[in-house]
Amino acid sequence: MENYRVRCAWDEEAKVWYVEDSNVPGLASEAATFEGLVSVLEKRVPELLDENDVADGVDIPLEIMSLSHRVVHRHAA
Question: What is the mean pLDDT of residues 51-59?
Fold first, then answer.
């Protein structure tokens, strides 16, 4: 059984989380919150695997990773 991976990133300008990279054929999605994006992925990934005839079995191992870049300031000593 193949493990499916989805790497999500935050777009600061658009203020959305989106799928940056994935080994799920045809996967592209975005949402205002990370939790919202995960909810979409839990529905969309099985649909896409079925559409592409690559679903194997009932359970789908899905690894969802998040990536967020920040600039932090240090206080002067």
Answer: 79
Count Cβ neighbours within 10 Å for each residue of 6-28 and write b for 16 or more, e otherwise. bebbbeeeeebbebeebebeebe
- Residue 45, number of CB atoms within 10 A of its CB: 20
Q: Which two tokens stand for residue 7?
A: 């790497």
Q: Give the HSE-up count for residue 61: Cα atoms under 13 Å, Cβ half-sphere.
A: 3
pLDDT tens profile 9-31? 999 999 999 999 999 999 999 99
Enumerate domains of the chain plus CATH numbers.
Answer: 4-67 (3.30.2390.10)
For residue 55 the two structure tokens come to 């679903």
